[in-house]
Amino acid sequence: MVDPTSELGEDVDEADAPECAACGEKIIQSPTHRVVTWVEDGRVASRHFCSPECKAEYDG
After folding, report:
1. Chain segment 4-34, per-residue pLDDT in tens
2. 54 in a domain, yes or no?
3. Which residues have a Cβ under 8 Å from the Cβ of 2 and sit 6 or more positions away?
4. Which of 22, 35, 43, 45 has the fewest CB atoms nearer than 10 Å to its CB?
5. Count: domains in the chain
6. Which domain of life is it from (predicted)?
């Protein structure tokens, strides 16, 4: 898993890159990458989206 606090554009291997929760595309060095986090059962959970449009579609 990629460190969510890492610098934008950091070299990320495709095998370690998160997938968009809406379209399934790997997210690599994307300036439109969005992460939604929440606490569930005392643990941090997250979903990654490749763009605001994919996030809106997922939230739809």
Report:
1. 655 555 667 788 889 999 999 999 888 899 9
2. yes
3. 12, 16, 17, 18
4. 43
5. 1
6. Archaea
